[in-house]
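ping. complex inputs:
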Amino acid sequence: MTENIIKINGLYKSFTLHNQGGVRLPILHDVSLNAERGECVAINGPSGTGKSTLLRCIYGNYRTARGSIRVKRDQQWIDVAAATPRQILQLRADTIGYVSQFLRVIPRVPAFDIILAPMLAAGIAVAAARARAAELLERLHIPSRLWTLPPATFSGGEQQRINIAHGFSVTRPVLLLDEPTSALDSENRMAVMQLIREARERGVAVLGIFHDAEVRDAVATRILGIDLQGQLREQ
Amino acid sequence: MNAGEQPLLRVAGLNRSYGSRVACADIAFELYPGEILAVVGESGSGKTTLLNCIAGRLRPDRGSVEYDIRDSGLRDIWQLAEAERRMLARTDWGYVQQNPRDGLRAAVSAGANIGERLMLVGARHYGAIREQSAGWMARVELDAERIDELPTAFSGGMQQRLNIARNLVTHPRLVFMDEPTASLDVSVQARLLDLLRNLSAELQVAAVIVTHDLAVARLLAQRMLVMRGGVVVEDGLTDQVLDDPQHPYTQLLVTSVLRAA
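pong. complex structure:
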């Protein structure tokens, strides 16, 4: 049985650069999109067309100028575009996961603790959380000597894998992935593809940007193209 | 986190001027239990004036500052008797200044600095107070062996941690912080920020943090207010305000930060 979990309707997003003479950059133009539990929708298109912007709008990281982004939480639809900051924080805590392209490093916090944090916040017992963190780090081939170190000095690929482990640590019904494999070797790309498949099997709706066509074709159940006018089309 | 719960602090229509100069104009916001709000803006934007008005240190000209007092609900702190307000400040609130020496008493030991607030709320057992003080020194990563030393024997970063312990020992529900890391070396700042981040998560204490450092806001606060010329020009989720700033001034602030890494 299919169940809608995201309904985006007539979404517009532009940026106005007040300190650059008020230049207005229109990005998303009348974007509508539904996603169901268990599917993986790949957003495809040339760079600069607003793929990341769309994910950030869904996560509430960017504000929406017009339109609605409804996400189902506890059988209730919440419009991210109109939600209060507290509602958005709640959605992020238990409904929407997001793996950004780059890890934002927090000074002094070890990699292992970064991955534990969302699980502990979700009320998962410490022992189970530690086991899950270790499993993810092993599957993503992070050598155990790095686990207790803060990732500030890690390579780009290692940081990206810490970010992925963080994003996959708890199961939230919506998962946004912004180029999760861009800095990874083939072994780790395989590991990420497997994680995505497992999330889908648990009923997670995955919305992702996959630069790598091989990864995209392997994980996506549906591909939507976004064109230079910021419009979204089934491909 | 429960969306239905009532705010811990509710500020409405708050105004404060110095002569003809307006420091705070029509400020309104709510703060929920356990939430951290950053107030950012340049010097002279009115952020410290706002902090002092809501912390019961400076009477606003107009407006209300309601606080959820245990057992009696939201009450305007400026309608309370002076003694009630002082009681709140020493039990349910904390106040961490930019310069730790302004918060500490120089003539008494580290342990006595921490224990003082406990005594103010009625603790009398010397051994128990000393034990709690030592426990708090350890929690803020200070050597509890140094409990009898004067604050001046500690470095600036250690003094600020001592100041934080002194403020948290009574388990306040709300802590006001005015540039808590600004007087510290960068190397010491990270440690203090990490400590504040952990303590706030662990104790579920709400905080209003005035800072001009956007990185501090990003690290600690869920929400932020951007002030300029006494007015809140933008507010929202911290990452939203920093990543998608709407107001020209916020855009200027965000794009003016040098990225170190």
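The mean pLDDT of chain A is 93.
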